[in-house]
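hiii so um. not sure if this is the right channel but i have a protein structure encoded as tokens and i wanna go backwards to a sequence. like what aa goes where. can anyone help
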């Protein structure tokens, strides 16, 4: 998937959490959480030098790719479950923890979206290298563009609903009862 699709997936995951009041936080922590979700949605592709984040972190990306390869360790839920466990267990300031939770939500959205590509994802790495695919979306294909458009449209509707500009789909009303 392209960074645009991952970006919209991360935004959607973050907006869903914020809009559903799964975390009940004021506006500044919500922005930090959403920013974390956006960063997390791009982070797993740091293992690929031609990805959006890989191009921004050339030396780091190249090193990670040589050590771990693409769609292996940095696309394995095991790594992020371990890191999440360590971060939740640490005594961090509340805003940092909110940002980290956003990053992990974004990472989860990235992994789920990559599961819909033809290449799939190694969900049980390092225990197994077998990749699981839930779909047949090719990166940069017309189907991915349509999928990205649906994510973007959904994001716009949720933002309009959260800020009470419109409630076409009454998304947040289901959670605020």
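sure thing!! here u go:
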């Amino acid at each position: 998937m392209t960074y645009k699709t991952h970006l919209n997936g991360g935004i959607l995951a973050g907006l869903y959490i914020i809009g559903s009041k799964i975390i009940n936080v004021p506006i500044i922590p919500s922005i930090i959480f959403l920013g974390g979700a956006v960063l997390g949605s791009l982070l797993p592709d740091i293992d690929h030098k031609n990805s959006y984040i890989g191009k921004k972190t050339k030396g780091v990306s190249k090193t990670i790719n040589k050590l771990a390869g693409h769609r292996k360790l940095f696309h394995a839920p095991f790594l992020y479950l371990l890191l999440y466990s360590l971060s939740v267990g640490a005594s961090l300031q509340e805003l940092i923890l909110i940002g980290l939770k956003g990053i992990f939500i974004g990472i989860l959205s990235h992994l789920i979206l990559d599961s819909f590509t033809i290449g799939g994802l190694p969900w049980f790495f390092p225990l197994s290298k077998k990749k699981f695919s839930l779909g047949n979306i090719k990166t940069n294909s017309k189907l991915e563009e349509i999928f990205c458009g649906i994510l973007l449209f959904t994001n716009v509707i949720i933002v309009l609903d959260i800020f009470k500009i419109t409630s076409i789909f009454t998304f947040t009303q289901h959670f605020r009862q």
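oh and Helices lie at 3-19, 27-42, 52-56, 58-68, 77-89, 94-114, 142-162.
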